[in-house]
């Protein structure tokens, strides 16, 4: 550990009331008021002052702890104290406590700073021989004395803008930066208005502002306009002579420099320790933002979910407070030499990873809540004309204010979740247990109602019936349609309850669906007879059917009641008039959705019609006798280089898109850091024997032998990283092939995306999250106490064999699937009903890759083979108005092909027409004579179409009239030149074969 005892140190003031001669304790980063070493008058006489004018502004685009502490010039040691909650800040330094509340919020900060003067004590006069109050040394409360202060002021304008679901946070931040950069140069007119373009004014209206500064303002800015006005007045607010300036930076002299009896030890805290503290707090901050965002969604409408998320958030805040309290106790002890930093760091690691507050578990729980919210949103979006009620008391008010109320209950939202109980128990336990409760996390998924396909299918079906019923009765003021969350273990997921005058009548009310069919049986000049097929659902609640009709193009439907699903004749119609017909089920509450006859039905004329008119439609050990320090340093450098490789890999787009890779690299990096820490601790223990002389090489050889016999030898570690970098490169190459495809990084995002389309085709990499025995070996080695030497471990681990891409057969199949997937996605890019996604997953039953087909958010096929293009498309016959084509079937995806689509268009024109082909030979008719056409063919599936095979060049139909008799000129030695266009037309097919014989037969 380094020491801060020998040199003057600089410390950011952070709004604290420093003055020259004040005592300070660097162990606690605490001012010591009421204690001094010199008399006040003597002190004043020996202050030296000089002017130091400076001002600047800059944009701070990140809200990370590192960026905020850097903007305030906070040292690493002071940052540790702030993170532990022991430093109370004021003025501009309150910016450190400004946290984003939402991930859907773009935040950019404008920083202004100015300095005015520098004051310092003359140590020639205030040195060791001039001390007055020596008793203050003996108390040992202080470690340093303030000997210099830089005065000035800082200000931070934090601009926020909410980001909608269809906006990008980084793009909005870019807009913010552009406008904020203009603040120093924006003019203000005589009325206080900003001189800006109209478009710019509209843009800044969305920005809100929060001010943190060392200035006393008449009014705190809350808008962009306020911020401009305040910013441009800041220099004046310091005062003409800087009389309003405050300490911004102080210089501290160790008391050991004044009197040797002041033996206070102050050790610096290592960057690794601070990074670990920061990581814990930033993880908790991320979870808090996710909670805030979730509470703004469907959680507002369903109080059961909202209560769980609020409870979860409160417990995370409780854990954070407990973590900071523990740090606040440990930091002074580490700095004072009472505790070893490594022991405290190891304790933090243990508590972080072995408690239910492990970041992985917290984020998993939030993943499930977000997925639950997305699922509810997909159901409620189906419910038109429906009010969502947040609580049971509100429900009671609503059902009393209407004759009838139909209410859709989500019955499992308030169910018990063991993980929340585990969090609560852990917070209440003293001391905390070290063993992780893996079972609790595994239980999370099992407890979620929406993970059952049977439950969600039944719920989706009920929601569709409910939504259609509500829409059909939207004009009826005596019926209310409501949706509410509840806890009822007797109901599987959902139930529909019918209320009358505030009391439940039916607890499992099934609304009627539309009649299955409505067909025309007979048409007369003044009547139409219709056949009604009964509704498939809700039959027990149907009292009759309503047939409705109106003249086409007019409003005003007339009703005729039919007692049941039967034939019904609608009479008193006008002759020779077009009518529209529809039918719906009737219940005691309201009517169901309508089934409407397609098109219009025309009654017959009174007289006999005339003749019809036809209108056609168309690392290993190497022995070298260097010094101990050099050799031990080399090991540390190897680990540092490895850490840099990990950091670079984690920054790649591919590792961010596929978190299964990122999670492994993070775990690998953390295990290397822990092994490095153990190595450093071993060195510290061996130093006394080395300093005693005679054991340097023996000690080093022992340490290096331990490393070499462990799985943490450099060669294996770097080989594993080589594999991860290769994996990232392979994935990047594969995903670059996939056009019209969105890469999703989590199961939650995949579920959300698949709910937003009728069909979703997803290319899954199922081996990305597979267990790797090498990582398990590293983890098991770290858990051993004491470490044992295993000769068998000295072998190099064949980590390459564990990688999914190591098998040529697997990668060849993957490239083939990726090509089929890309071709299929490209062929369907105009189809808005299909989404194409790529994602990583963990599925030991699948190797390398698989293509999943989803419908309405649920998996339909786990190995969906996409069709390739038809192998060949050849011309079999050409006529003046038709072309016959031969289709050779597609090589891949045959089991999913329902038919083939032959597409054709006139050469040079747009607008392809389609003809479906059930067989291998198809004739395209109704073509124009003597006209060039282009032809192509593709496979058709129930989801979409495959890529096309297009005939090279164009095919020309024959002219309408056959040619006359050939003219033979016997005296001529030359044969007549053939018509080249005709010859070319005769010779062209997709595979180069001739069709001349076919044409000659025709002629």
UniProtKB/TrEMBL annotation:
Under SUPFAM superfamilies, the record lists: Fibronectin type III (SSF49265)
Originating species:
Sparus aurata (Gilthead sea bream)
Renumbered residue ranges of the record's region Disordered: 424-443, 951-1003
Q: Which PANTHER family does the entry mention?
A: AIG1-TYPE G DOMAIN-CONTAINING PROTEIN (PTHR31594), SI:CH211-281L24.3 (PTHR31594:SF16)
Positions of the Fibronectin type-III domain: 514-606, 869-960
Name under which the protein is recorded: Verrucotoxin subunit beta-like
Gene expressing this chain: LOC115572182
Q: Which PROSITE patterns match?
A: FN3
Matching entries from InterPro entries are given as:
Cytolytic_pore-forming_toxin, FN3_dom, FN3_sf, Ig-like_fold, SNTX_MACPF/CDC-like_dom, Stonustoxin-like_helical, Thioredoxin_11
